[in-house]
Specification:
The complex is a heterodimer of chains A (358) and B (110). Chain A is α/β, with parallel strands linked by helices and 358 residues long. Chain A folds into 3 domains: 60 residues, no CATH class; 99 residues, Elastase, domain 1 (Roll), CATH 3.10.170; 161 residues, Neutral Protease Domain 2 (Neutral Protease, domain 2), CATH 1.10.390.10. In chain A, a hairpin with a 4-residue loop joins strand 4 and strand 5. In chain A, helix 2 packs antiparallel against helix 3 and helix 13 packs antiparallel against helix 14. Chain B is α+β, with helices and mostly antiparallel strands and 110 residues long. Chain B has one domain. Helix content of chain B is 21%, strand content 34%. Chain B is built from 2 helices and 5 strands; from the N terminus they run E-E-H-E-E-H-E. In chain B, strands 4-3-1-2-5 form a 5-stranded antiparallel beta sheet, with no helix packed on it. In chain B, helix 1 runs antiparallel to helix 2. The relative contact order of chain B is 0.28. The model of chain B has no long low-confidence stretch (mean pLDDT 90). Classes of the chains: A alpha/beta (358), B alpha+beta (110). Chains A and B meet through strand 4, helix 8, helix 9 and helix 10 of A and strand 1 and strand 3 of B.
Chain lengths: 358, 110
């Protein structure tokens, strides 16, 4: 065990080198070290690199595919050190008495099926990562998040978010799981424009997962995120609207055009939201909505495919809005023909939000 | 003593500000607040902390303690929230007499 303990101080880039270039013993040691590392963020960064370059090594780091695709645990109001908690329902097992457990189970399944059926993507990492969800995180906890390797849901405090709201909302669950997809692909850095794109990708695919589950066309969809989950303090229909950013609840101030871009410092001050990632996401969100509406039909089939290919093959951790606009226009030409209706729709959509694609 | 907690981020990205003024608390709660501030390590000079990359949809916190003309501020990410600060925050957000507001990011400058 001494060597494993020592390995905890090995920097992540050295671990990657060990796994990519080392002898079988060195590789095994590197993988084992990484797998037991407490430093979740480092594990995540290294795993992302390995998925791209060394899928087999990465697979060894991740929960085994096949046997137990989904599991939902109850963390019994414990905190991050208590995750994932006690397993309540595994893949293929019948519903349990706790509605939150069943909702988290169904939400993970519907999101998995969406990525598999529409984009032939096997789970958030593309390699069958088992989807673990924990419910009842902390007390009156007003949030849901992807922690780099699993889903975590609070119960809501009944004031900002209604009790049980997070697991009632399929688009919220799919939003969070899409943070996982982004983590394993473009890795969009969570600050300023790259962070707002990260948020926007989660809203776009969050909404698409729900639209597909309801069989809706772009014109039929409500394009809301978290519809019906707000508590009395927020007064509104939803957390965000891709159709009409800035209208989801009373003080929603999301812009839908670059003229109203909210310039905030990325200074760690909680008031500035990592440089406005949840604010300026309204701009690319609305561009997607406009493109999907102009193309028509089921939004996941064409607009969704363009955005998915862009996210998974064209963007990187520092991509900004301009890069996303340029890439989606290029991809729409590659997928559906240069100067076709799809490419024209995507170009026009970005121009309508104040960005001129190259 | 006046203590405020600003929470940002989360899935909603909203900024919640919770403030308690010791003058408006019962004598027992006043003593408890002072003890919690002490245990949170917010009565001394700030400790140096390294940069942490933000994670999607996690909370971050700015805690301000104003006491006898001095002001002390510290920021924390949810992941690295010390136990004492966590206890202070959960007490402040539930004690009788706290004030709460919620607004989008950017506040006055948006």
């Amino acid at each position: 065990m001494a060597s494993d303990e020592m390995c905890f101080i090995v920097p992540p880039h050295v671990l990657v080198q060990m796994i990519e270039e080392g002898s079988p013993e060195v590789r095994a040691s590197g993988i084992r070290t990484l797998a037991i590392s407490e430093r979740v963020r480092e594990r995540r960064a290294v795993t992302r690199r390995l998925v791209q370059h060394e899928p087999q090594a990465a697979a060894a780091l991740l929960p085994a595919p096949g046997g137990d695709q989904r599991s939902v645990c109850d963390v019994h109001h414990g905190s991050q050190g208590d995750l994932p908690g006690k397993k309540m329902r595994g893949e293929g097992e019948p519903p349990v008495a706790d509605a939150a457990v069943n909702q988290a189970y169904d939400g993970a399944g519907t999101t998995y099926d969406f990525y598999q059926a529409v984009f032939n993507r096997n789970s958030v990492d593309g390699h069958g990562l088992a989807l673990v969800s924990s419910v009842h995180f902390e007390v009156n906890y007003d949030n849901a998040f992807w922690n780099g390797s699993q889903m975590v849901y609070g119960d809501g405090d009944g004031l900002i978010i209604k009790r049980g709201g997070f697991t009632e909302s399929l688009d919220v669950m799919a939003h969070e799981l899409t943070h996982g997809v982004t983590q394993f692909t473009a890795g969009l850095r969570y600050r300023a424009q790259s962070g707002a794109l990260n948020e926007s990708m989660s809203d776009v695919f969050g909404s698409l997962v729900r639209q597909r589950s309801l069989g809706e066309t772009a014109a039929q969809a409500d394009w809301l995120i978290g519809e019906g989950i707000l508590g009395p303090q927020l007064q509104g229909a939803a957390l965000r609207s891709l159709k009409a950013p800035g209208t989801a609840f009373r003080s929603d101030n999301q812009p839908s055009h670059m003229d109203h871009y909210v310039q905030l410092p990325d200074d760690g001050d909680p008031r500035n939201d990592n440089g406005g990632v949840h604010i300026n996401s309204g701009i690319p969100n609305h561009a997607f909505y406009l493109a999907a509406m102009a193309i028509g039909g089921h939004a996941w089939e064409k607009a969704g495919a363009i955005w998915y290919t862009t996210l998974t093959t064209k963007l990187n951790e520092n991509s900004d809005f301009q890069a996303a606009a340029d890439a989606t226009v290029a991809v729409s030409g590659e997928l559906f023909g240069a100067s076709g209706a799809e490419q024209q729709a995507v170009r026009a959509a970005w121009e309508q939000v104040g960005i001129t694609p190259a | 003593m006046r203590v405020s907690v600003v929470r940002g981020g989360g899935l909603a990205g909203l900024v919640r500000t919770t403030t308690v003024d010791a003058d408006r608390l019962s004598a027992g709660d006043r003593r408890e607040l002072a003890a919690l501030v002490q245990q949170a390590g917010l009565s001394g000079p700030p400790a140096a902390r390294g940069y942490e990359a933000p994670e999607p949809d996690r909370f971050s916190y700015l805690v301000t303690v104003e006491d006898q003309g001095r002001s002390r501020q510290a920021t924390f990410t949810e992941r690295s929230l010390p136990e004492g600060v966590r206890n202070l925050i959960s007490w402040i957000t539930t004690v009788d007499g706290h004030e709460d507001s919620i607004e989008p990011p950017g506040g006055g400058n948006s």
